[in-house]
Amino acid sequence: MISNEKDIRIYPQHPRLGVGVVIFKNELVLLIKRGKEPNKGIWTVPGGLVQIGESVEQAAHREVLEECNINIDLAGLIDYFEFVEKDIEQKIKYHYVVLDFAAEYVSGTLLALTDAEDAKWVNPNQLENWEITEKTLLLINKALLSKARMD
Predict the structure, then answer these.
(1) Beta bridge partners of 72
(2) pTM for this structure?
(3) 127: helix, coil or strand?
(4) What is the pLDDT of residues 111-131, one digit of tens each?
(5) Could you give the C-alpha distances from 127 to 12, 61, 74, 145, in angstroms and in order?
(6) Is residue 7 over pLDDT 80?
(7) C-alpha pair distances (Å), 146 with each of 10, 75, 132
(8) Residue 33 belongs to what H/E stretch?
């Protein structure tokens, strides 16, 4: 891990490429509670930045293992989104381009590690009970539609 990682995430010189992963275990979906900004304390899907020399698929596997202690089988790309946050002076504080994948749980004991404050398997029909963003809700719904077509 890069020692100045915090410095490259805030006020970046260029957009940062990231991955997110919607993971299913039977009929449940995995949510993590973010332990760091941006969106600290909000429930979302696991993910993070792609490292130099790493494919986006490798990054998805690594980030899920680092944050949640589980192994996954990627099912495919669902969507992408851009996250841009400006500070009070209108300077770009964060700029991410995130590729979101669907995946199935394979093995491991779920633990909240590194950037995750907590991690839970959740019934997708009860997402309104969780503090999640509209983008995360839309992403999970897209993944559910994609999963339904594959089943």
Answers:
(1) 105
(2) 0.88
(3) helix
(4) 999 888 999 999 999 998 899
(5) 32, 24, 22, 15
(6) no
(7) 33, 9, 20
(8) strand 28-34
